[in-house]
Design a protein that fits this description.
Elements (H helix, E strand, L loop, with lengths): L3 H10 L4 H8 L3 H9 L8 H13 L2 E6 L2 E7 L8
Antiparallel strand pairs: 1-2
Helix pairs in contact: 1-3, 2-3
Protein name: Transcriptional regulator
Pfam families: HTH_3
GO molecular function: DNA binding
């Protein structure tokens, strides 16, 4: 679904701190830091990853590739819909 580097790249592209993303998702900074440190995220629930992904997508991030095949991001327009 996502790699840690994609989450970190997305957060950086938005100029968000760990706290900014954690607050936007309703998660702890420790959780975001752990997610970003994992190359292949396997120890996290689908619910948590879906929450992080939808939060970043609503802010205008498009995720490209897969975690094991050319993972990346593209910066687009923020969604007018909050999730």
């Amino acid at each position: 679904m996502l790699s840690g580097i994609q989450i970190k790249m997305a957060r950086s592209a938005l100029d968000w701190s760990l706290k900014d993303l954690a607050d936007a998702c309703g998660l702890s900074e420790k959780t975001i830091r752990r997610l970003e440190s994992e190359r292949m995220i396997q120890s996290t629930t689908v619910k948590t990853l879906t929450l992080v992904k939808s939060t970043l997508e609503a802010a205008g991030i498009e995720f490209l590739g897969t975690p094991d095949d050319r993972p990346g991001i593209r910066i687009g327009r923020p969604s007018s819909k909050c999730e």
